[in-house]
Amino acid sequence: MHTPPPKRLLIVYHSTTGGTERMVQAVAQAAGTEPGVVVDLRRAVVVNVSELIAADGYIFATPENLGSMSGLMKDFFDRTYYGAIDQIQARPYCTMVCAGSDGRGAAKQIERIAMGWRLKPIQEAMIITVKAQTTAEILSPKQLTDSQVTACQNLGHLFAAGLSMAVF
Questions:
Q1: I need a surface site. Which of 57, 82, 88, 163 has the fewest CB within 10 A?
Q2: Measured between alpha carbons, how far is 154 from 150 in angstroms, rounded to an integer?
Q3: Residue 12: which H helix or E strand, with range?
Q4: Which residues of 94-129 are buried (b: 16+ CB within 10 A; e: fewer)?
Q5: pLDDT tens, position by position, 138-151
Q6: CA angle at residue 162 from 158 to 164, to 5 degrees?
Q7: 0.85 surpassed by pTM
Q8: DSSP H or E run through 156
Q9: C-alpha span between 101 and 104 (Å, rounded)
Q10: Complete domains list, the chain, with CATH
């Protein structure tokens, strides 16, 4: 019996104060438990077009900075957009945002880019708010609650299972 090659889940992220990094660590750990799925957790600054094309599904994760995705996530999209535009259509994706209070601006930016790539969202963006409002809170290392980590793990299980079973 022929064993199909594993599905590749590429998680592209940027994190400055640790919140987004904790989110992707939880999602990657959970997704990595699914048989038949290989998880590739990569910082946005190092991902190239060939890695994007080689993946079967994507999670894009960013902090919200001034109501937008981070500059280094924007750089990732700028560097890879046209090189992948006709080669990744119909693949599943999800967005994760670590926000001080809102996150919708960053999520909307990524949604528009993914629409241009003709990717399929598996769910609405996961936005985790850390209630950072003062300068000190915004610049300090971020902690997630147990329920926030569990939500990220659930997303990892869902995405990997969907990829493995070719649901998406």
A1: 82
A2: 6
A3: strand 7-13
A4: bbbbbbbeebeebbebbbebbeebebeebeebbbbe
A5: 888 899 999 999 99
A6: 120
A7: yes
A8: helix 146-164
A9: 9
A10: 7-164 (3.40.50.360)
